[in-house]
Amino acid sequence: MIKTSLVVALLSFSVFGQTLEEFKKEQLGGYQEYKKSQEEAFAAYKKAQMKAFEEYKKEISKVWKDPKLSTKKEWVEYSPDKKTRTDVDFAKEEIIVETIAKSEKEAQQKLKKALAKVVLIDTKRVQESDPLEKKLAKIKKPKGIVDKPVRAEPILAPVIFKSKPTMQNVKKFVNQHVTSKKVEVEKSKVPHANVYRVKVQLPSNTTIKRSKIYEVRVRREAKKQNIPVPLVFAIMHSESSFNPRARSHIPAYGLMQIVPKTAGMDSYNYLYHKKRLVSGRYLYDSTNNITLGSAYLHILYYSYLRKIKNPESRLYCTIAAYNTGAGNIAYAFNRYKSNLTRRQKYKMKYAADDINALTPKEVYAKLMKDLRWDEPKHYLKKVSKRMAIYHKIYGL
User: Fold this and answer.
1) Where does the pLDDT of residue 29 fall: very low under 50, low under 70, confident under 90, or very high at 90 and above?
2) Do residues 169 and 247 share a domain?
3) Same domain, 120 and 44
């Protein structure tokens, strides 16, 4: 459970920038119509993306038995010839480098080159060099979509090396991990070749070190949006384990897993007073991602769930809503009310009085019992526990 001290400060928070009334007005008028047209355009764009993904996966399948692609917690990248890949698992704090080669000598050269690249590469170079991203970049984007280049930011170097690494540092690291004793071998799908693999365990405190890369921006956006710093960190940890290349099937992108047509569009409109969709590339930029993710937490807490009076109860609902949507929070409290239509059960105005009659502990228990799916239940539990951890590290 979240300590009361983490939410007391919320009592004095006011809506930043726009007033609540101004924000609500922004949602009216032509916004819904625009949103619908943009969603239709984005649906076509998403379909084209999925087609490109499937084509790319087929290309990989010709070479690999298990054609991996990036997920929320794993960043997977292939060489241009598809025969070497790196898989950084941020949740397990582990790097797996694999290559298909005809001899161990050839394999060691390729493994060392790939390992050196993955520990040094920054976010800008990833975006520009990744074969899949190059394929996706050729797809025509919907009119009016916000799309900006990803800014350069180190990914693994800060957690592996104590200071900016020299080539000597990198060579020592690579030679330490790519040795005959550590290289695993298995049969390849490619004739007359094997798969050679090395596993490299990242430092045990990698997750916390990765969080520190974003501390300045998290503090800035949390202050702007009047939300607790530990909440933003706990969301980032739970969504991506601080993987800046996180991508889910929805699709959702980046550190805080922003879905362009929902949280992305609502947050961009709230922040910049423009009705725009944002691209995946825009969301792979950590600054953009943290800015929009923090804004969405503000929208949930101060707008969609504003009728919940107790700040701790509202915070629990906000956490669950980030995962499953505010409508499903209302449904958890309205689902057994026979006097409501199915549509009404998803409206917070019919649930607020019941929520306000409960203690925060009872609200938490109700959510854990009556949320429609297990995923948001687990999510609420994880984020709540992680808030306490990040409170110890970063304070309120």
Assistant:
1) low
2) no
3) no
